[in-house]
Amino acid sequence: MNERTLIGDLNQKIGEEVLIKGWVDVRRDQGKMVFFDFRDRSGKVQGVVLPNSPAIDIAKETRNEFVVAVTGLVNKRPEKNIKISVQNGDIELEIIGIDVLAEAEALPFDMSADGFNLDLVTELEHRALSLRHPKLQAIFKVQAVIIDSFREFMKSQDFFEFQAPAIVPATAEGGAEVFKIDYFDKKAYLSQSPQLYKQIVMTAFERVFSVNKIFRAEPSATTRHLTEVVSLDAEMAFIDSWRDVRDMSESCVRHILEQVKTKCEHELTFLEAELPVMIKETPTLSLTEALEKLGAPTDKDLNPEQERKLCEMIKTETGSDFVYVYGYPTKQKPFYVYPNPANPEFNEGMDLLCRGVEWLSGGRRINDFKQLMNHVEEWGMDPAKIEMFLEAFRYGAPPEGGFAFGAERMTMQILGLKNVREACMFPRDLNRIDGLLSK
User: Which residues bind L-aspartate per the record (predicted)?
Assistant: First the structure.
């Protein structure tokens, strides 16, 4: 049996007989000859079945998306037929044999690069098929690099990776936006955030991070919200202020952007995506300063339109697509966020905005046990439900803080997608679990 050659390696096999395995991407029957585009995980190549080839009969019966094993000669194309801008545009496979490994039914829509122009609902309804298209594969290859780069950066900074539980006895953020589940006739929840667990683990390992699924029961059908997302979280001990968290998160985002630029050049070009600009020092404003800059009342939070306008102003003034905003009203944030000692009505939490959308949230946390217990009472929390969390602080916890962001939203913003569902392989929202719930 011949050893399989990946399509991406065919340039090294010019003049040789090879065996490739993959899918029929496109078939073009020219009468006496049949042309194919084949694809596998490494790319695409054009093949031709000549009139005298023993494969001519089966070539005429083969359709798009058939899974095939193809034997052929790798030939250099004539100079006039070379396509420099196309992968393997300088070679062609002269097909000797085709073995059909699996047939495919007639496709419900055009899968060619030019014909693939589906509305999002149709794309999601046929997710198992649409994932084969290079546009979607490019999106998720970029997302994989985002997640890998986060993990790579965290480990380079001596952060310890752990896995937080998805089933929890109480919610980290408070509020009603949680999924309740029956747990052996007891009440439990799907985790909104690994926040409490990463703070617990921080008291043992100092620097920790996690890549976890989180769940938000938000009855929202906006282009920015999902009920299940991949959350990338980090927590660090022995900080001096929230600015240490800002600096670490800025370095992390910068590393991710650099890696996407380096490793995803083809995908960025294919998707016509322009990476956001992060200048040497990201502009940083207090919430009050941001609202004053916008000419808005300073007793409220930023709304989505104000976030968009602020980012536009910062971009015009500095060239940065990013801006940090810190110092939010204490009561508007979770119980564990550290209040500003000089003005306790505002906290030392922060958000990173980019292109009008929140990318990342974080800040300093309360580490003093008595202060934490006061907040638990003020926020109406039940101490019994977070006893494990409180125990970590009862027995000594260092000054600490952390940050988190969603992989899907970052993917959406980096690639300029219009809807976060485009950046989620199997999106869950108010109306969908795989298929539409209305069905």
Answer: 173, 216, 361, 365
